[in-house]
Design goal:
251 residues, alpha/beta, elongated
Length: 251
């Protein structure tokens, strides 16, 4: 009697613990058991079950193919080459979807000033101020540039200001080689359409335009001949005004 009472207590313990199934010493072939069960008339067979499930399966979502980097660069060159004027280039750049920088930027930073001016000042990638305003050389860096131009008898409106990278990278990081390659055709075509005589390349913009992996410390102060199509311009790399604000001793 004592063993029967203990067995009942043990079963109650298992039930309280959530045990709902027992196992034996040998494994059970559930598929074989299901095959032995009689099938009632009108019930779907095991072979029909996958077909029934597939009827309710959600259709696969068709995603647009992602173009490769080479295709994006090829398209950037073709689009830029087909732009006959600066307005067309601005429109084409604002509708260019192959560069991921555009997705997180607030504005496309294109240009400001007088197209066709003798002097063209080219910015690097936009800062947070330029991303908010949509204009190159905004904020404190723009104010310092105005003073620098005034020292040689120029005003901002006398020149043409543009950016080599039109969208601000997330967190203000440097653009990747891929992002530069996608944006550079538009920058070169921009220079070709603006037809400047002199170019002031600020900071990293000089290396981008010259396609040289040399820091601005070695490039600054040395004139370069920039030939783009039929346009020939003299380019002078300088420290970026934003850098000079952080490092006033470099002025």
């Amino acid at each position: 009697m004592q063993s029967e009472i203990d067995m009942a207590a043990l079963l109650r313990f298992y039930l309280d613990a959530g045990v709902t199934e027992t196992i034996g010493e040998e494994p059970i072939n559930r598929c074989q058991l299901a095959a032995r069960q009689p099938i009632s008339p009108g019930a779907p067979s095991a072979r029909q079950t996958p077909a029934v499930k597939s009827a309710h399966k959600k259709p696969a979502i068709q995603t647009a193919p992602v173009p490769s980097l080479a295709e994006g660069i090829r398209e950037a060159h073709e689009i830029a080459r087909n732009c006959e004027n600066i307005d067309a280039l601005r429109h084409a750049l604002e509708n260019f979807e192959h560069c991921s920088l555009k997705k997180l930027a607030s504005h496309t930073v294109f240009a400001e000033g007088t197209p066709g001016a003798t002097l063209m000042v080219i910015d690097r990638q936009p800062s947070s101020d330029e991303d908010r305003s949509g204009h190159p050389f905004s904020g404190a860096a723009g104010q310092l540039l105005d003073k620098m131009l005034a020292a040689i008898g120029f005003e901002r409106s006398d020149g043409y200001l543009a950016g080599v990278i039109p969208w601000r990278p997330p967190g203000g990081r440097a653009p990747t080689d891929e992002e530069r390659a996608l944006c550079l055709p538009f920058a070169l075509r921009h220079i070709e359409l603006a037809k400047p005589t002199f170019i002031l390349a600020c900071g990293e913009a000089a290396g981008y335009l010259l396609d040289r992996r040399i820091g601005i410390n070695k490039l600054r102060g040395v004139w370069n001949d920039l030939q783009i199509g039929d346009v020939h311009a003299r380019m002078l790399p300088i420290f970026h005004p934003a850098f000079l604000i952080e490092q006033p001793g470099s002025k």
